[in-house]
Amino acid sequence: MKLREFAKQLGLSPTTVSRALSGYPEVSEVTRARVAEEAVRLGYRPNVNAVRLKTGRAGAIGVVMGRAGEFHFAEFMAGMAERLLTEDTDILVIPMADPDHNDEMQLYRRLVESQRVDAIIVHSPRPNDERIALLHKLGMPFLVHGRSDIDVPHAWLDIDNEGAVRRATSHLIDLGHTRIAMINGRPGATYALHRDKGYRDALQSRGIELDPQLIASGNFTDELGFRFARSLLEQANPPTAIVAGSMMTALGVYRAVRSLGLQVGREVSVIAHDDVFPYLTADNMAPSLSATRSSMRAAGTRCADLVLQLVSGRSPLDIHELWPVELILRESTAPVQC
Amino acid sequence: MKLREFAKQLGLSPTTVSRALSGYPEVSEVTRARVAEEAVRLGYRPNVNAVRLKTGRAGAIGVVMGRAGEFHFAEFMAGMAERLLTEDTDILVIPMADPDHNDEMQLYRRLVESQRVDAIIVHSPRPNDERIALLHKLGMPFLVHGRSDIDVPHAWLDIDNEGAVRRATSHLIDLGHTRIAMINGRPGATYALHRDKGYRDALQSRGIELDPQLIASGNFTDELGFRFARSLLEQANPPTAIVAGSMMTALGVYRAVRSLGLQVGREVSVIAHDDVFPYLTADNMAPSLSATRSSMRAAGTRCADLVLQLVSGRSPLDIHELWPVELILRESTAPVQC
DNA sequence: CTCAAATTTGAAAACGATTTGGTTGGAAAA
DNA sequence: TTTTCCAACCAAATCGTTTTCAAATTTGAG
Questions:
Q1: Is the bond preceding residue B316 a cis peptide, omega within 30 degrees?
Q2: DSSP for residue A297
Q3: CA-to-CA distance for A56 and B187, rounded, in angstroms?
């Protein structure tokens, strides 16, 4: 059913019907009500593409998916999708074709030029992120999930990675640990730096000297967790506690600890960061995993929300959200054994 | 840059330019080459929404995302996205607002009516799946990822779940196991039935009587794996082998086995199904996990491919792909201990 | 009761492409 | 030479809305 047809059935002009449905003020309430009601009854829905063409809105938000098949991605997207369900806005998923750097900029540039999105969400930003500079230059609205130090105004939502790791590390120190290892995310991303800072600050403020040997970084896979924890624990002066970057890393760490005949929550304490997954919970691990926790899904929902505001004109300068992170203590952390 | 403008710069009519770019035959090769080249140079790209409006194509494939935040979803999508990158087709992610059944049909109906997708991918179909009937009735092209027995013609791509589980179970029987437990997916989905059948057939063909107590089903979470494995192993006549539905389930099973002081690959053999994740690999588990393996990402890529064919006119009746599943033996399976 | 102001409504022009149904000019056929 | 045909191109209509500008109607003040 087209607008023409629908309007004719109502004995109104397309103009009025369009206005009634889009909530313009210059249409009487009684007419608006009738139009709305009949639209439902007769099943009239404006053609999306016509609307988009006319208004110049793309009706979609772009999300670039990293190549490494990040497991938290689905949660973030689920959160976004939930928020956008009632909106006339879609999510456009763009895969990173190539991890090559130059290619990444190309991808963003093409995405903007394609006019297929009204806004873009940038994940895992770097301190000096060219993507941000590019999007700003091109005038494409965008929200950064994470933070960047770049000297370009931008909207962002981030969790307090630094604080989270500082608290986690401090707590381990409180428990008497002094040799605390840290498995971080891929170097380069701001969140990894923040976590690093939280870790270092905690040590320093307690007068513990930092041992660079105790720091590793890389993708959030179980394999990295295992390899690094294993090699750490096998060395002469092994750590008594490990701060792990993700649930998957934690799995690897647990495995490494066990494989050496040790026990998590005894010889080795572990705290990991938990993005809250329905299928793998810190509570269910054995022993249950102490974790810094922040819901990825909730972040997705809120990001979608903020992007919508951005698109409808809110200034990026006003949009800065730093979410606190909970520290939840469970069985994987214990006082150091003397 | 608009078509008008671009055409004028070339000294051609919009008609010819449009045809040249869309590969119509009635334009000379030399002209086509020139147009293509200049389009790149001047950065002309047809406005997506105008194209979509005019052609009536939505330029997107709909994927309904289950509410349970399935972890394999991201992999499937990554696969799809990879294939669609070079195409002018987007992925539209629609979240299931409510697990309520009636609501689900509403969702699909609205999705079709919204005219926002050219085709839909249906996940985890049931033997008699109303969604399939609905989409067929509404004339919306769709591809089923999985299978259904419903008496409605439809395209599908599925992996050989039945064969996979049969082989896994048979292999365990070969190793001397007779009490073999099975942790299946949510009851109702066809794949769960197929796995069940594979399991039963394997037992029956070897004359082993089925014990209903050894079967469980539910979401693919570590928690289910743990709970069920634990309660199984604690009973009077415990199983000596477990077939698990997913990697997450397997994690839970491993945990349960260990928590009872037993060892996977000794007292208890385990085989799980592995969708191949970059962040959690069967090879890295300890002991390494024997698994039936099939790449979710590859399935996504192929599904995208098939949907494109579907949209451009290929008959759904011709599209039936059954992918074989590998069985990869590692350390988690061993001869039964007498 | 009149006239201006305020409220509702409509006609028609966009939005930026595709595509139908012609033209044109030159080569091949008669 | 004339006719026919074909390759290559183009003008204009169209897709289904929104929105500008103008007209019609109602309201309210004097």
A1: no
A2: H
A3: 46
Tokens 């839970």 — which residue? B252
Of B71, B115, B255, the CB nearest to A279: B71
Q: What are the b/e assignments for B293-323, b being 16+ CB within 10 Å?
A: bbbbbebbbbbbbbbbbbbeeeebeebeeee
Nearest-neighbour CA in chain B from A208: distance (Å): 33
The answer to whether the C-beta of A16 is closer than 7 A to strand C is yes
Q: Phi first, then psi: what are they for A215, rounded to 5°? A: -115, 135
| Strand C within 7 A of A14 CB | yes
Chain B contact present for A65, CB below 8 A = yes
- The set of long-range contacts for B11-19, using a CB threshold of 8 Å and a minimum separation of 24, is B18/B46
Of all protein residues, which has its CA closest to the C1' atom of D10? B13
Q: How far apart are the first and last CA of chain A?
A: 78
- Asked if residue B2 keeps its beta carbon closer than 7 A to nucleic acid strand C, the reply is yes
Q: How many other CB atoms are found less than 10 A from the CB of residue B261?
A: 7
Q: Do B258 and A258 touch (CB under 8 A)?
A: yes
Nearest Cα residue in chain A from B249 = A279
Residues of B in contact with A47 (CB under 8 A): 53, 115
Backbone angles phi, psi at B92, to 5 degrees: -110, 120
Contact A71 B71 (CB under 8 A): yes
Lowest mean pLDDT among A65-69, A91-95, B158-162, B326-330: A65-69
Nearest to B75 by CA among B294, B222, B272, B243: B294
A92-114 per-residue burial string, b: 16 or more CB within 10 A, e: under 16: bbbbbeeeeeeebeebbbebbeb
Q: Do the chains contact at B90 and A85, CB–CB below 8 Å?
A: no
CB-closest option in A49, A277, A280 to B52: A49
Burial (CB < 10 A; 0-12, 13-18, 19+), residue B248, is buried
For A226, which of B77, B252, B284 is closest by C-beta distance?
A: B284
Report the C-alpha gap between A247 and A221 in whole angstroms. 9
Question: What global pTM score does this model have?
Answer: 0.91
- Mutation target vs B (from A1, A2, A41, A49; most B CBs, 10 A cutoff): A49
- Is B100 at the interface with chain A, CB within 8 A? no
Find the helix or strand (DSSP H, E) in which A173 lies: helix A161-174
Q: Over its length of 338 residues, how does chain B's per-residue pLDDT go in tens digits?
A: 899 999 999 999 999 999 999 989 889 999 999 999 999 999 999 999 999 999 999 999 999 887 666 788 889 999 999 899 888 888 988 887 666 666 889 889 989 988 899 999 999 999 999 999 999 999 999 999 999 999 999 999 999 999 999 999 999 999 999 999 999 999 999 999 999 999 999 999 999 999 999 999 999 999 999 999 999 999 999 999 999 999 999 999 999 999 999 999 999 999 999 999 999 999 999 999 999 999 999 999 999 999 999 998 899 999 999 999 999 999 999 999 87
Among A173, A324, A311, A289, which Cα is nearest to A240's?
A: A173
| CB-CB under 8 Å, B65 with A81 | yes
Percentage with pLDDT > 90 across chain A: 82
Contact call for residues B211 and B152 (beta carbons, < 8 A): no
